[in-house]
Request: fold
Amino acid sequence: MTPESRPDTAARGGAGLRMAYMAPQIGVLSATFVYRDVEGLRARGVEVSLFSLRRPRQEVTSAEADGFIRETCYLYDLGAGAVLRAATGRLLRHPGRFLRTAALAARDALLARTAAPSDRPKLLGHFLAGCLLAERVERAGARHIHCNFAHAPAAVTMYAALLADVPYSFLCHAHDIFVHGVALREKTARAAFGMCSSRFNVRFLVDEMGCDPGKLDVMRTGVDLEAFPLRAEKPFSKPFQVLSVGRLVDKKGFDLLIAAAAELLREGRDLRVTIVGGGPAGAALRAQAADPALGGRVTLTGPLPQEEVRRHFAAADAFVLPCRQAKDRDMDGTPIVLIEAMALGVPVVSTAVSGNPELVEDGVSGFLVAPEDAAAVAGVVRRLMDDAAAARRMALRARDTIEGAFDLAGNIARLVQKVEASQAVRK
Reply:
């Protein structure tokens, strides 16, 4: 079986399995795929207890996330006193495990590969937070911890799993390994398994970080095909509606999109660009969009709940995300918004960065251009505007791609299968 091949989802594994699910900020707008994974696990009969480091810091959340936010145990909300009580309790009840895990944490803080020297003492803090997570995992009766993202929450998960004597796994995406990668070799070695959102990420962990390839597999970020149905064919709007969604950060390339729009508007093309999201690059992007030459044709909406984002998808004639590698080496993995656009049948334009070529086949299911090339972005948007029939053919092929490898149910089935296999090994 290849890393992306799916087991028969009719073979309904998962019933009776009790898992703890960990993530950095459950409910945050930029990680809707986290709670959708939880929905997928529960649909298979898995009992899932939710844990997270921090509450979402944003003012805007989606209604669909509210229930998950209410049930999540946010570890850092519990305070230093709870952490110290948990650590003391672990030491008194399981002194051997506590001391062995503390020794590993100290070794990691001294010897593990980290992105910055300041990351080293943080590993000791993650060990202490792991004591608290271990206590809550035992209280929930969970027999496996799965962590979405491989940076700080995975360190807490790793130490908690060792303290509670349960297996753990993790799924990595982008900044969690490219920028904030800490002790990745250790996390991989001690895990039951590690999952990556792309083959690109597997190669990065093996070639750049020295991780054990035998512990790594691919699990695509999936979408619920029923929640994201192929939309009916519609004529292009007048003006042509270009949509982009994401955090306003350098790696998304929104400045390139605005520059491409400027080129198309200069030649008399009738289009509008809507960029949905919030982030540190917002002020610079708004200043760029305010250029009188753009004639008010570029709108930055700020962050929006998922329900409103879906309305923008429904109106879009094309979805454009000109990803790049940022100065700090950060880049997208396989952006969930590209996957969602393709599932819905919105023609997509992006760049040949990271895992994108594993998602979009250039000229077949969308367009991929070289990063940092606003003129190339303008060129393929122009081609879409000029050939609605070809755009629809691409959209249909894109839907086929999502149904084949990016279906949430199929990917969750693979995760459950691997968790159950790890449970069987321990019996």
Observations:
- The CA atoms of residues 109 and 118 lie 10 Å apart.
- Residues 18-222+407-426 form a domain with the Rossmann fold fold (CATH 3.40.50.2000).
- Residues 1-11 have pLDDT under 50 and may be disordered.
